[in-house]
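DM from R.C. (forwarded with permission)

"hey, sorry to bug you on a friday — could you get me a structure for this? deadline for the figure draft is monday and I only need the backbone to look sensible"
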Amino acid sequence: MNWSRTILDGIVMCVIFNAVVGMFFFVFPQAYSTMFPKGLKKAASPFVEKSEVVKMYFVLIPLYLLMFLYMAVSAHLAGASGFKAMFWTGYTEMMFVNAGDFFLLDVLARIYVKDKGLIKGAENHPDWEWKGWWKLAVPEHGLAWPVLVCPLTGLIVAGIGALLR
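My reply, with the result:
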């Protein structure tokens, strides 16, 4: 495993993921409200159009697939071979995406979105406050990503890497 390449690719994936998700958030803010804490989601639900949610998934699913492919090909070209090296490369790079998502989208963007009132129906909802927000953000990024999303990414990257041999 090439650590310098893994770290740089992790940073690149973090920037790309957060830029794409952040950009499309401003295009379809109501659709992204489906990923917010329960109270905000419920308050915004009358204003959410299913077509916007479908468009959001048409952005997110290809984004993840391209990220998995890039992680595997980059690791392969950097000389990583074998299941263990490819798995940990994918896991580590997705942890960078996780950290960026937490700090850039869940902390900084939350402040901006709350102040601008971008989510119709949830403008003054109490879950915008830190206490309500942390109930979702900390378990998601502190537990769900490291235990579920990152290992799954590692398995996918290792699987793609096995096909590249």
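R.C.: lifesaver. The chain has a mean pLDDT of 88.
me: no worries. The radius of gyration is 17 Å.
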